[in-house]
Amino acid sequence: MTEQSAASLTSEPTPPGPETAAAKPAEKNQKPRGLWGDAWRDLRRRPIFLVSMAIIFVLLVMSFFPQLFTSVDPNHMDLSRARQTPSAEAWFGYDTQGRDIFARSIYGARASIIVGVMATVLTVLIGSIFGLIAGYFGGWLDSLLSRFGEIFLGLPFVLGAIVILTTLNPATEVPDAFKITSLVILSISILSWPISMRIMRSAAISARNQDYVKAARALGAGPVRIILRHMLPNCLAPVLVYATIALGSFIAVEATLSFLGLGLRSPVVSWGVMIADSRQYIQTSPHLLIFPAAFLVVTVLAFVMLGDAVRDALDPKQK
């Protein structure tokens, strides 16, 4: 053995340089991200997501704490000010009964958003349960649930809502705020759940053929455990996108039903009720319609923009 090789064996290892020392913490901090981690990282870079979330945050604060935006009672009437145009005292003017439109627009966000959120949750819940069961088991059960969903999907939405709301809540009855709100949520959910069922069913059919489901089944896991523990987390992405867009659509549906006299009615304060009250004065007093309609349009647009951003972030083809 030469002196040079002996020296190389006995010499101490060279201490790591600054580049090597800096590389180790960087490698240690880089943890593998899943689908949701990548989606969140992508969403934070999208201006459309940030703008929509800012609008939705303001709307949620407006719904839970309307006193932060106005101190006026939305139901206070002063007939001497009926249909007065916007002024410094009342930024949006007064409605046909002398109520402050700005205050009613602020307080109206609560009912409209509650209907949209609850209808979306109920729709996705019903559709996801049926979709997972149909997609996992397949066969005659899949055919039965699919045909059952097509019955509701084939009903015209407005006609079905008219039948449900007029049957369960006749116009001759004294309006009850909780009952009317519950019926509107129920009617929207009954007529909309087949769409979320189809989305979840397609995702479940794709997931049940994956290796992790086959492995869980081989290890003796039951259907309930496989569906809830393995399939559900991997099938949520497309349903979440649908739910985000549907929430804005359901808020618009509530306004449509209220405009037709079938949805929310006074004493409930909502944008749809305000638009319905202004339909006879659109030409003479357009401010009665413009301001609640503007709140409605901005809200629906914010949720649609959020849904588009989430869809693009979760779609691997967009990477």
From TrEMBL:
Subcellular localization(s) per the UniProt record: Cell membrane
InterPro entries from the UniProt entry: BP-dependent_transpt_permease (IPR050366), MetI-like (IPR000515), MetI-like_sf (IPR035906), OppC_N (IPR025966)
Family membership noted in the UniProt record: Belongs to the binding-protein-dependent transport system permease family.
Matches recorded under PANTHER family: ABC TRANSPORTER PERMEASE PROTEIN (PTHR43386:SF6), OLIGOPEPTIDE TRANSPORT SYSTEM PERMEASE PROTEIN APPC (PTHR43386)
Keywords recorded for this protein, A-Z: Cell membrane, Membrane, Transmembrane, Transmembrane helix, Transport
Protein name per its UniProtKB record: ABC transporter permease
GO biological process per UniProt: transmembrane transport
Composition-biased stretches (Polar residues): 1-11
UniProt cross-references to Pfam families, sorted A to Z: BPD_transp_1, OppC_N
Organism of origin: Saccharopolyspora hirsuta
Annotated membrane topology: Multi-pass membrane protein
Alphabetical list of SUPFAM superfamilies matching this protein: MetI-like (SSF161098)
This protein's record includes keyword Chaperone: no
Any one annotated GO CC term: plasma membrane
Domain ABC transmembrane type-1: residue ranges: 109-307
CDD domains: TM_PBP2 (cd06261)
Location of the region described as Disordered in the Swiss-Prot/TrEMBL record: 1-33
Membrane-crossing residue ranges in chain numbering: 48-69, 113-139, 151-171, 177-195, 235-253, 288-307
